[in-house]
Amino acid sequence: MSTYLGRFAAVVLAIVATRASAKELMIGDSAPKLEVKEFVKGEPVKEFAKGKTYVVEFWATWCGPCRTSIPHLTELAKKHKDATFIGVSVFEQDNSGVKPFVKEMGDKMDYVVATDLVPEGKGPQEGAMGKNWMEAAGEDGIPAAFIVNGEGKIAWIGHPMSMEKPLEKVLAGSWDIKAAREERVKEKELAQKRDKAMQAIQVAMKKQDDEALLKAIDEAEADGVTLPPMVVVMKITALSKSKETKDKALKYAKGLIEGPYKDEAMMLNNVAWALVAPEKGKPDADLVKLGLGAAQRADTLLDRKDPAVADTLAKAYFESGDIAKAIETQERAVKLAPSNPQLDADELKQRLEEYRKAEKSK
User: What is the pTM of this model?
Assistant: First the structure.
């Protein structure tokens, strides 16, 4: 767990996205044309027929979450036979893998499937569907889906796992497209504020300026922006560095532990690590006590089977003075380490040796 903030610095750089488009594709606008290279499964759809509802979903062979959403789309397609589902493969480095992927999915991917039309000599980001739909709508992640109503208008945009209720209302003729557009506008405004905040956070991280970091996070939260969970953890880390801000760290962390993160094991784990493992020096006793409670709850939520959580809990025990418990828990973390390839097993073993040496020197 000690390296998670370092890894997160790279993630933050990737999160800051540029939403540049001369005219953004919005709910209520006419749907762009279907410009695909080929249909690899199902009956080809050349254009949107009047009076018919379509779902245009974007995915890729390399996209892990797409493997989860694809069977869900199949279920929806079987349930709502009045709608035509079209899955368009986008952002592929090599389209030769699309057909084998579709074949492998079999009945789990039981709807029309096509590949994006990428101009000769251009990269995967230059595909017609990717640019005219995804980029134009400011959608920077897949899977993503668009519902096109019987008038050829975009009725809804979002994650396919959240599409069922909107689709039912569109098909029933009860969908309020005007209200959906207004909500989309609000979401985009918040997204722009979020991007601005993330840019400020990025600059503060590069400069290692905790004051600027806290200011950027506080302003974003005051503006109603939902920041990535790990940014929230970074706020705790920054507040924990100073005796003058310790009480703020306690109050803020406690609010998360008892509130939105109460049943979120990995977020409890991340908050706990921020409290018990400061970047420099020994952690404050009050912060350790709070972190220990959070780590214990995370461990319970995951049935004591997660090595990262066990690692954090062991650190919390160690910093609270219970070395015997720290050793016992860290041994469990080392034993469980093979279940999580992303963890540095050697780092866990080093901490175990540290605890054992501390026990011997008592």
Answer: 0.60
